[in-house]
Amino acid sequence: MDIIDTRRYFHQFPETSFNEFRTTKEIINILKDYDCHLTYGKALYGDHPVGYDDIDAGYTGVLATFSGESPYILIRSDIDGLPIEEAQSDHYPAKNNFRSKSNMHACGHDGHIALLLSLAIYINKIKPHRGIKLLFQPAEEDVRGAMSLDESLLENVNLVIGYHIGLGEAPRTIGVGSTNFLATKKLKIDFIGKASHCASAPELGISALDMAISFINKINSVIDYLDDKFIFNVGKISGGEAVNIIMPKCTIAVDARASSNHGMDLFMKNINDALSEIERDFKARTALEVVGSAESYKEDDDKLVDDIISLLNKNDIKTSRTPDFGASEDVTKYMNMVKARGGKAIHLKLGSKLSAPHHNDHFDFEDEDLLLFDKTIKLILNDFIDDKL
Question: What pTM did the predictor assign?
């Protein structure tokens, strides 16, 4: 399997969160002939439901378990794309006939998939004594994947390896020990008012839009006084029945972030308090649903970071130490869980020259760099297998 061709193949059919049906099937088709146990479908989720308003959402994703001595190593790749129309003119994938026709891998997850599939072939070939789990995880983009998968997949795991292409890392440089991941919660908030004619009886109505605006203003005024870094973004707003009717219901979609899990808990308390005030002031109802979540993560294992940097430098691979991640990623759930019970975790930023920022219709990375990234991950894996790190 050529890793570049594999990346370009998966690049052509990106699928959004929990809709990665073809992606999942193609991964299974590649892995089914290998000496590994495949877990997919509802078996990967246990009792966890998926989807909230997306009736087409399904139980996507694959866990490939290569048997060996316990404890296991877990290496994770995200597999979802974004609802973006990919650029056509002056765009490398378009010029080379692997542009997507709908949606877009605008964050490098196609490269992540190719790296993990290459690793599967390698593991199947060398048959290490350590057990290894490869997780092809859905729904990272709206951080619903990790929170939905059953935690039993981490059973007997004492090492987690995560990675991400780009994110500001210098080209052909490996950032070892990514840190300062932001905690995030994606929120759906309903404001339930009361309809009435806006001219003849406005006093009998309760404007859900006024409720939403009042709530947003309350949160924005609170943020400046909280002792942490906070982000509060209303990305979607919907509601209303007719231009002459007081809006009876308004729904907003919120991206809330904080630099620590403690800060996020404090932020959520302020959000809930503000909603209680809105209910009291307007004599109406609100409803909050957490539809996505990821934890913060700070790298604190200096020895592990230094050992990996030393290993890579000896193999002529340029590195940087503990680069800021600067965003949110739900791989942190696995990393925090395993470290909390005495295991280890490491995240790598894989530097490549980008044609445009992440989540942009001209996003692309230099896929020849996948050869370097593939070498990097295999070097690290080999040392963990040999218990040198």
Answer: 0.94
Give the other-Cβ count within 10 Å of 233's Cβ: 9
The whole-angstrom separation of Cα 41 and Cα 98 is 28
Give the torsion through C-alpha atoms of 110, 111, 114, 116, to 10 deg.
-110
- What DSSP line would sit under 23-47, residue for residue? HHHHHHHHHTTSSSEEEEGGGGTTT
Contact 361, 104 (CB under 8 A): yes
Please, which pLDDT band fits residue 43 given cuts at 50, 70 and 90? very high
Residue 112 has pLDDT above 60, yes or no: yes
| Alpha carbons 37 and 59: distance in angstroms, whole number | 18
> Which letter, b or e, does each residue of 23-50 get, where b requires 16 or more Cβ atoms within 10 Å of its Cβ?
bbebbeebbeebebebbbeeebbeeeeb
Mean pLDDT of the chain: 95
Assign 52 to helix, strand or coil.
Answer: coil
Q: End-to-end distance of the chain based on CA atoms, in angstroms?
A: 29
